[in-house]
């Protein structure tokens, strides 16, 4: 599909940046005021796939609905390119149809009484686009999402993945400035979700469009995004590219939410240019110290399960090596997931299925110093 943007779409989409300042949204519930968005600030670059990631109730969908204009914030400002589409201070609240945005909903919102062509054509008919333009633009949008020849099919006869692509084509056909996704893959089974995720990433990358994607699925966020904003209780906790968020986050909540993490309280004993020796409940551990936490400083040591190596006991005195015991393990295909105990500390790790280790076995545990990192304690 590479290099086919010009021929597959009516014209290149003029992607816009998105700027959000001080966005606040409150709700009333059982006589109490609940703050869904708490002074949110964000800069989303043009041509960027930007993901809002967080647990249920963190405010990510509320933020998306405020951007598109389906909800009205109580305070703040939203700008798309040079246009301010909402400002509490300036009294601006542009209606959704004037904001130039495309939206793909969790349920796809496919109309069952229409065929595929009519579903995709709907935004153009609503704008009184000429019949010839509708025909050309719908055909090109369907060709781009690899549904050429599906126009006359009833929408209800399509698979979940195909319906998702119809929803994408409908969002693209009007050539939006920004396209928004509200957990569009959550209704698909695991295998189809994986396949559709790869396809969606390819589509969005080739389009070079600004995309804002909402999900609670960390794998989706890591696989799709140029940058990720992790949300908690209506606030942005951290923004960064996927590798930064996963391998070197600044926040313990993010470390735990973005993937399985062992978080161990630590005190810096010795610090060098790149690493530190920290004292922990299981003993001294060497770890990356990119934030230069000083000697005596408190931190959380983050050690992801895949970077803790477990083996049968051996007479070894390497740094970061400890003796432990397997409390529990389960087979998940590519590895065993295991709970291990070192002293009084419980850790989660993975064990190679080729290693003959059972629950109850004594083991050797080695922490990879280059993949353990320190997060300053708040």
3D architecture notes:
The chain folds into two domains: 5-247, Rossmann fold (3-Layer(aba) Sandwich); 260-376, OB fold (Dihydrolipoamide Acetyltransferase, E2P) (Beta Barrel), CATH 2.40.50. A six-stranded mixed beta sheet has the order 7-8-9-3-10-11, with helices on both faces. A five-stranded antiparallel beta sheet has the order 2-1-4-5-6, with helices on one face. Helix 6 (190-207) links the parallel strand 8 and strand 9 (210-215). It has nine helices and 21 strands. The protein is α+β, with helices and mostly antiparallel strands and 378 residues long.
Low-confidence spans:
1-11
Proportion in β-strands: 35-45%
The CATH top-level class label of the largest domain: Alpha Beta
| Distance between the ends | 48 Å
Instruction: Report the radius of gyration as a whole number of Å.
Output: 25 Å
Number of helices: 9
- Tell me, what's the shape? globular
Number of domains: 2
Output the helix-strand order. Answer: HEEEHEEEEHHHEHEHEEHHEEEEEEEEEE
Oligomer: single chain
Coarse structural class: alpha+beta
Q: Tell me about the largest β-sheet.
A: 6 strands, mixed
CATH homolog superfamily of the largest domain = P-loop containing nucleotide triphosphate hydrolases
* CATH topology name of the largest domain: Rossmann fold
What are the key terms here?
single chain, 378 residues, alpha+beta, Rossmann fold, OB fold (Dihydrolipoamide Acetyltransferase, E2P), 2 domains, six-stranded mixed β-sheet, five-stranded antiparallel β-sheet, 9 helices, 21 strands, globular
């Amino acid at each position: 599909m590479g290099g086919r943007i010009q021929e597959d779409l009516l014209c290149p989409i003029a992607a816009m940046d998105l700027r959000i300042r001080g966005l606040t949204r409150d709700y009333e519930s059982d006589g109490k005021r609940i703050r869904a968005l708490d002074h949110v600030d964000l800069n989303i670059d043009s041509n960027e796939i930007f993901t809002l990631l967080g647990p249920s109730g963190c405010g990510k969908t509320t933020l998306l609905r405020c951007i598109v204009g389906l909800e009205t914030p109580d305070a703040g400002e939203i700008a798309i390119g040079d246009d301010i589409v909402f400002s509490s201070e300036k009294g601006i609240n542009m209606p959704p149809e004037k904001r130039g945005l495309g939206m793909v909903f969790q349920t796809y919102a496919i109309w069952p009484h229409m065929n595929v062509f009519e579903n995709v054509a709907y935004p153009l008919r609503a704008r009184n686009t000429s019949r010839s333009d509708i025909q050309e633009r719908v055909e090109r949008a369907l060709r781009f999402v690899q549904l050429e020849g599906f126009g006359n099919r009833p929408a209800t006869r399509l698979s979940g993945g195909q319906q998702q692509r119809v929803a994408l084509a409908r969002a693209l056909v009007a050539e939006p400035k920004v396209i928004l996704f509200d957990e569009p893959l959550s209704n698909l089974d695991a295998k189809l979700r994986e396949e559709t995720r790869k396809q969606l990433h390819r589509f969005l990358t080739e389009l070079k469009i600004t995309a804002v994607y909402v999900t609670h699925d960390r794998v989706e966020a890591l696989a799709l995004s140029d940058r990720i904003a992790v949300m908690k209780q209506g606030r942005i906790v951290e923004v960064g590219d996927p590798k930064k968020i996963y391998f070197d986050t600044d926040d313990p909540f993010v470390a735990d939410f973005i993937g399985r993490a062992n978080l161990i309280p630590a005190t810096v004993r010795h610090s060098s240019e790149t690493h530190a020796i920290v004292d922990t409940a299981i003993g001294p551990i060497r770890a990356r110290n990119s934030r230069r936490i000083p000697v005596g400083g408190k931190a959380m040591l983050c050690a992801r399960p895949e970077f803790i190596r477990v083996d049968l006991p051996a007479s070894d005195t390497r740094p970061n090596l400890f003796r432990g015991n397997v409390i529990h393990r389960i087979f998940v295909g590519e590895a065993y997931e295991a709970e291990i105990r070192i002293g009084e500390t419980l850790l989660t790790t993975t064990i190679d299925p080729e290693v003959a280790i059972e629950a109850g076995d004594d083991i050797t545990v080695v922490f990879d110093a280059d993949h353990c990192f320190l997060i300053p304690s708040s």
